[in-house]
């Protein structure tokens, strides 16, 4: 006979009372353990067990509550509501899961990386150029962090003041993801958005940096209309947000160096371009001068040839002229004979008739009388 | 006309230099481009001077 002191319920009553008790005593629990028997049903519902060395608890929830792809062997902390289902028994309805432990974080990150890579989020063709020396930067990080102060310091020391629109947010912990995503969205919706978004965080443990490999944060970076530059942790830390960004920097300081040139270095480049410009104009002028000199030489040669030809021609004319010189007979000893009226006498018979004649020689004229004409 | 920033002026300078490197360019065009390049370089130098002053002021803070 069962004692009357013991409470008696029907099955349904027991389930109801048990769940009421659970709701009062454990409205929400966080349980950590290793995932086992992980499966997704109809693309919407997630079932798995969390186990440790000696126990196992069933979990159930929505795929939307997952931080990313999960599989057996990954260690997580799951937040949920314990419930006794009237048909399917006891389980914890999870509302939130966080991957914990370096090994598990790495494993989960690898799973998510494969998934996002298949979707093309990390494809090189998607990467946009980051602007050179932007006038306006949108900065997302913790205002109290060394990453923030290092970034600002390097920007100012390399390039002077740039307009930096800053959105302060947590960069680790449960609330960080929501704040980072919100900051990215707000910058994208701003009426006068910055030319580039810079998301930075200094070094930390795998747990500290895990938020930058959460699926929702990575997707927010990849879908930003404003180009993104992401630098998380140190050189060896590569978060999925950095892979999805348009440009990855190894550290927050490196992000500043990638964004703005060093003005001393720019001076050197400018001096080089100045020399280059001077050199090119000199080449063009020298080339033109050389061409002019060639033309001048050609013209001069032609002119000289012409002049020589003309000289020769003139000399020939001179010789011809000399041959026609009327004084030439005088030089040969001939004289010009005229009568008294000055008319030239060309033969002896006229000379006899003239009687008195004048005889012009090369050096003067004499008068003569024709005495014996024969 | 809006004042051009360092980035815009630098792009312009690179375009002018590219044109100057065209070996078929005649001397008249080259002279004009040379003057343009020199003007841009002077403006870039002025902007760098200003930045240098700002940097020194910030460093002194």
Walk me through the topology:
The complex is a heterodimer of chains A (about 375) and B (about 60).
Chain A: H1 11-25, E1 29-41, E2 45-51, E3 56-62, E4 75-85, E5 89-99, H2 102-119, E6 136-141, H3 146-159, E7 163-168, H4 176-189, E8 196-201, H5 206-209, H6 215-222, E9 228-232, H7 240-244, E10 247-248, H8 252-259, H9 263-323, H10 328-331, E11 336-338, H11 348-354, E12 356-361, E13 364-369
Parallel strand pairs in A: 3-5, 6-7, 6-8, 8-9, 9-10
Antiparallel strand pairs in A: 1-2, 1-4, 2-3, 4-5, 11-12, 12-13
Chain B: H1 6-20, H2 27-60
Helix pairs in contact in B: 1-2
What characteristics describe this protein?
heterodimer; A: 5-stranded mixed barrel; 5-stranded parallel β-sheet; 13 strands; 42% helix; rod-shaped; B: 61 residues; mainly alpha; 2 helices; 80% helix
Question: What share of the residues of chain A does DSSP label as strand, in percent?
Answer: 15-25%
Please tell me what the overall shape of chain A is: rod-shaped
Extract low-pLDDT stretches of chain A: none
**Number of strand segments of chain A:** 13
SSE-based structural type of chain A: alpha/beta
How many beta-strand segments of chain B?
0
**CA gyration radius of chain B, whole angstroms:** 15 Å
Quaternary structure state of the chains depicted: heterodimer
Distance between the termini of chain B: 35 Å
Net shape of chain B: elongated
Can you summarize the main beta sheet of chain A? Answer: 5 strands, mixed, barrel
**In angstroms, what is the radius of gyration of chain A?**
56 Å
Nearest-integer average pLDDT of chain B: 84
Question: pLDDT below 50 for ≥5 consecutive residues: which ranges of chain B?
Answer: none
How many helical elements of chain A?
A: 11
Q: How much helix is in the residues of chain A?
A: 40-55%
């Amino acid at each position: 006979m069962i004692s009357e002191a013991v409470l008696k319920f029907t099955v349904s009553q027991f389930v109801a009372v048990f769940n009421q008790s659970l709701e009062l005593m454990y409205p929400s629990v966080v349980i950590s353990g290793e995932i086992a028997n992980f499966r997704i049903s109809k693309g919407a519902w997630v079932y798995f067990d969390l186990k440790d060395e000696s126990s196992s608890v069933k979990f159930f929830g929505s795929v939307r509550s997952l931080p990313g792809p999960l599989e057996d062997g990954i260690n997580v902390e799951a937040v949920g509501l314990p419930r006794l289902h009237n048909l399917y028994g006891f389980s914890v309805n999870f509302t939130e899961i966080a991957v914990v432990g370096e090994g598990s974080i790495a494993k989960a990150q690898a799973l998510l990386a494969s998934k996002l890579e298949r979707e093309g989020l990390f494809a090189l063709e998607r990467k946009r150029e980051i602007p050179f020396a932007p006038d306006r930067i949108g900065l997302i990080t913790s205002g109290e962090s060394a990453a923030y102060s290092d970034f600002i310091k390097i920007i100012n020391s390399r390039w002077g003041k740039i307009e930096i629109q800053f959105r302060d947010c947590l960069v680790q912990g449960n609330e960080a993801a929501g704040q980072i995503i919100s900051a990215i969205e707000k910058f994208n919706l701003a009426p006068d958005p910055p030319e580039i978004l810079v998301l930075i965080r200094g070094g930390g443990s795998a747990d500290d940096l895990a938020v930058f490999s959460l699926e929702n944060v990575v997707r927010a970076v990849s879908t930003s209309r404003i180009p993104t530059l992401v630098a998380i942790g140190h050189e060896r830390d590569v978060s999925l947000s950095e892979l999805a960004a348009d440009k990855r920097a190894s550290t927050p300081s490196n992000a500043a160096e990638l964004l703005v040139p060093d003005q001393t270095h720019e001076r050197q480049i400018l001096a080089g371009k100045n020399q280059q410009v001077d050199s090119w104009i000199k080449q063009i002028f020298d080339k033109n001068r050389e061409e002019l000199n060639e033309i001048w030489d050609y013209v001069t040669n032609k002119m000289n040839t012409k002049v020589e030809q003309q000289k020769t021609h003139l000399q020939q004319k001179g010789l011809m002229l000399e041959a026609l010189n009327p004084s030439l007979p005088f030089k040969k000893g001939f004289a010009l004979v005229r009568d008294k009226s000055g008319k030239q006498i060309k033969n002896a018979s006229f000379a006899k008739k003239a009687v008195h004649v004048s005889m012009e020689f090369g050096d003067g004229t004499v008068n003569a009388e024709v005495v014996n004409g024969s | 006309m809006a004042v051009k920033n360092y980035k815009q002026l630098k792009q312009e300078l690179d375009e002018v230099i590219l044109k100057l490197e065209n070996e078929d360019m005649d001397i008249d065009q080259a002279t004009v481009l040379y003057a343009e390049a020199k003007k841009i370089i002077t403006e870039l130098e002025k902007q760098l001077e200003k930045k240098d002053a700002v940097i020194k002021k910030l460093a002194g803070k």
